[in-house]
Specification:
Layout (H helix, E strand, L loop, with lengths): L10 H12 L2 E6 L10 H10 L9 H13 L10 E7 H5 L5 H14 L5 E6 L13 E5 L8 E6 L2 E5 L2 H17 L3 H15 L3
Parallel strand pairs: 1-2, 2-3
Antiparallel strand pairs: 1-4, 4-5, 5-6
Helix pairs in contact: 2-3, 5-7
């Protein structure tokens, strides 16, 4: 796979991108920001601008939106698009990134993407207890080959890390599944996103 702007990416993030491109299913938990596969370019650029002191490339802010679009192509690939099931904390949806206009467009984009058959979005509300306070983001990748184990990645302010131990990957998957089982259903989650969108709509 040829990754655009690869020289601007860390080795760990490039490895994640390669694994993600080969996966047929991705499960995520995002507690701070909207997941990258569902970000609009303006939202991605605003995040890149805020992270600028941590980026290895001084020009990365200009490329952030394009990098997100390249990742997101996996959701439309033929013949088998990537299946995404994401758990997004309510706090990530209420944090205004890039201003009210960009945030409104981002929330509307989530609602549009949730209509796709290969995308499932669940919102983890503030009152979800300890499960709602789990750290993130996490990425769990499953591959088409029956004999290939799942891969897991965690992300922090300093970059992406591969979870190498199979037992740790399994434990992350168990916690993710528990949150998915107890979080509001996709339909109720869409109602929550619509409600938040009305609150942040620019006047």
């Amino acid at each position: 796979m040829n990754i655009e702007h690869a020289d601007d990416l860390t080795a760990k993030y490039r490895r994640f991108r390669l694994d993600e491109a080969e996966a047929h299913r991705e499960r995520t938990l995002d507690t701070v920001i909207v997941p990258g596969l569902l970000q609009i370019p303006e939202y991605a650029a605003a995040i890149a601008h805020a992270r600028q002191p941590l980026e290895r490339s001084p020009g990365w802010t200009k490329h952030a939106g394009a990098e997100r679009r390249e990742r997101q192509a996996s959701l439309d690939r033929e013949p088998e698009p990537l299946h995404l099931h994401t758990l997004v904390h309510e706090g990530a949806l209420r944090t205004i990134i890039g201003g009210a206009e960009i945030m409104t467009a981002q929330l509307e984009h989530l609602l549009d993407m949730a209509e796709r058959p290969n995308i499932t979005i669940q919102v983890v509300p503030f009152d979800h207890g300890a499960h709602g306070a789990m750290t993130g983001p996490w990425f769990l990748l499953s591959f088409p080959e029956d004999d290939e184990a799942d891969a897991a990645y965690t992300e922090s302010m300093t970059g992406m890390d591969n979870v190498g131990a199979p037992d740790d990957v399994a434990r992350l998957a168990q916690v993710w599944q528990k949150i998915a089982e107890t979080a509001p259903c996709p339909e109720r989650s869409a109602d929550m996103i619509m409600s938040i969108r009305k609150e942040v709509r620019p006047r």
